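User: Predict the structure for this protein chain, please.
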Amino acid sequence: MEMGRSQEMSEEKKRILRERAKRLAQEPKDARTYEREMEVLEFLLGRERYAVETEYVREVYPMKELTVLPCTPDFLLGIVNIRGEILPVIDVKKFFDLPGKGITNLNKVIVVRKDSMAIGILSDEVINTYAIPLSDLTPPPPILTGIKADLLKGITHQQLILLDIEKIVSDKRLIIHEEIE
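Assistant: Here is the predicted structure, written as structure tokens:
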């Protein structure tokens, strides 16, 4: 009789352990806590909210002493010297046909780097850095064409436009070669 009882206890333990293993093997109910995220730096261009991945951001630098270069496209504002490194500064507003409000004291240069290429991106105001879930990104809407779509990784549900830094820094339009007679 005692043998039957210990066998029942053993079977009960096995049943409990199986149930516990099934529960532990299930997906968590709140899967968002384990969702992949991307850290971004949010900034303003005109009235639009943009972001770049922080892995490409080297620093944010106040706009100072911009040297304008002749014979360059209108999106290339000029160059700046940041601690001995000469960097081109581009105005992404020109790429996106946003209304310009001119250079103000609030403007910053976001220095981004991919491999050996570094550029400055003009911004009206730097907002914050934070993580966004990758599932929040949607492809650029089909109404955007040309350069607008080419430079975007996606748009979040909160209307934050994520720029594709890899495409920007490798864009052939940044290579200026114009000979003057």
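The mean pLDDT is 81.
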